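Task 17 of the worksheet. Students: predict the tertiary structure of the chain below and write it out as structure tokens. Keep your answer in the requested format; marks are given for formatting as well as content.
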Amino acid sequence: MIVIIYSSFPNKEAALHVGKYLLNNQLIACSNISPITSQYIWKGKFHEETEYAAYFKTTITKKGEAIKCIKKMHPYEIPIITSEQLVVNNAYKSWMDRVLS
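Model answer:
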């Protein structure tokens, strides 16, 4: 099992900054960052804008600390931070374990 942590960011630089910090501190093994179009209501107003979706791949044991860092570094007042445990192929899991050991 691995953990995928998802969050969206206002710009690519913020997502890359958090991802790089998590990688350099061995809290994640990989991040995937992509542009997305988001629609939402914030403070009573409709917004449609480009955000960046970030998927951070980590282990169950590092999940809590990774989420704590994301919350601390996130530029949004109320960021979305979700996590899901996934079964992955053995070779990928072995690689992650080596990277994060």
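Marker's comment: DSSP finds three helices and four strands in the chain. The beta strands are 2-9, 30-42, 45-58, 81-86.
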